[in-house]
Amino acid sequence: MARKTATDDLLAPVTLAVGQEDLLLDRAVREVVDAARAADADTDVRDLTSDQLQPGTLAELTSPSLFAERKVVIVRNAQDLSADSVKDVKGYLGAPAEEITLVLLHAGGAKGKGLLDAARKAGAREVACPKMTKPADRLAFVRSEFRAMGRSATPEACQALVDAIGSDLRELASACAQLVADIEGTIDESVVARYYTGRAEASSFTVADRAVEGRAAEALEALRWAISTGVAPVLITSALAQGVRAIGKLASAPRGARPGDLARDLGMPPWKIDRVRQQMRGWTADGVAVALRAVAEADAGVKGGGDDPEYALEKAVVAIARAARSRNL
Rounded distance, CA 280 to CA 251, Å? Predict the structure, then answer.
């Protein structure tokens, strides 16, 4: 539910995304990139962190090309740019290049305010991406998610979803998408209760996180609580699969790569890269393979291939937790 300026041309020369809500910042970037690629499938996208934008880098990236290719240049954490790089960006704002869209992601606040003010003065398209700290904001976000997907949800259902999921916007967005995919017609409170009751206390992602961290007892405790409070088993197997696959993706990534580069290459947000890095200690390639097989068996079990879905999930959780410690066994 990012708020935009009245001049909402996705291919405006400069887009300024301001705030600290990662989901909204990522969406602001994706909207621009998608629009650019719709206009030109061969659009060159350069995604840079503040430390990668050295003095002279912007001039190099925005210099005229013999092929006049469309380009999107993304600068993350623009509030952390060096003084010389800020000077380069301010100079560029006065005369932006054709066929190039510059996207500046800025946290807002006092740090780097000069750049923020300069971009606004230059007429940048602005997208507000604030942290949603108030329950009313998260409720409005859920309503907007359902509207954007062309679906109807009752006020009670929206409130129940916020109460169940909590403050994580990514999980809220994922829950909305899951309900839209699974449910026909109006989404009401009974549907949310069936899928997500008790999720705030023991979500499917909590089960997955404890399992991939090798904490079997805690994972089983979270699993039993989730099942007892009505979390759908298929959501738990989905979360387990996501957790194990994330370990496998990051383990096979080049060593020493920057979080921003990894996020782009692996299709994960930067915050998740940091979390998975902490979780992957103790994992081996064989362990990942074992865990993926366990998830596949559990998925078959909860979808009718076995007589006891709960046992299938418990077996998978134990197998994943053991695989997480395979390097130390």
Answer: 8
Residue 302: per-residue pLDDT: 87
Tell how strand 3-4 and strand 125-128 pair up: antiparallel
User: According to DSSP H, which parts of 166-203 are helical?
Assistant: 169-182, 189-196
The count of other CB atoms within 10 Å of the CB of residue 328 is 9
Give the angle 253-254-256 at the CA atoms, nearest 5°.
120
Amino acid 65: pLDDT: 67
- Residue 150 makes CB contacts below 8 A (sequence gap 6+) with none
Chain CA centroid to CA 220, Å: 26
Any idea how long the chain is? 329
Looking at residue 182, which CATH number applies to its domain?
1.10.8.60
Domain enclosing residue 301, as ranges: 202-259+267-329
Give the pLDDT score at 1: 47
Rounded Cα distance between 248 and 256, Å, is 16
Q: Is the same domain home to 173 and 252?
A: no
Same domain, 29 and 117: yes
Residues 6+ apart with CB under 8 A from 20: 107, 108, 129, 130, 131
Q: What is the pLDDT of residue 178?
A: 87
Task: Name the token pair of 290.
Answer: 């074992």
Element holding 127 (H helix, E strand): strand 125-128
Distance between CA atoms of residues 121 and 93, nearest Å? 9
- Structure token pair of residue 129: 């991406």
Q: Among all chains, which residue has been given the structure tokens 């395979």?
A: 326
Residues with Cβ within 8 Å of 42's Cβ and at least 6 positions away in sequence, in order, are 69, 70
* 254 and 146 in a common domain: no
- pLDDT less than 50: residues of the chain: 1, 3-6, 200-202
Q: State pTM to two decimals.
A: 0.59
Identify the CATH number of the domain in which residue 119 sits: 3.40.50.300
Indicate the number of domains in the chain: 3
Task: Point out the domain boundary residue: 200, 224, 251.
Answer: 200
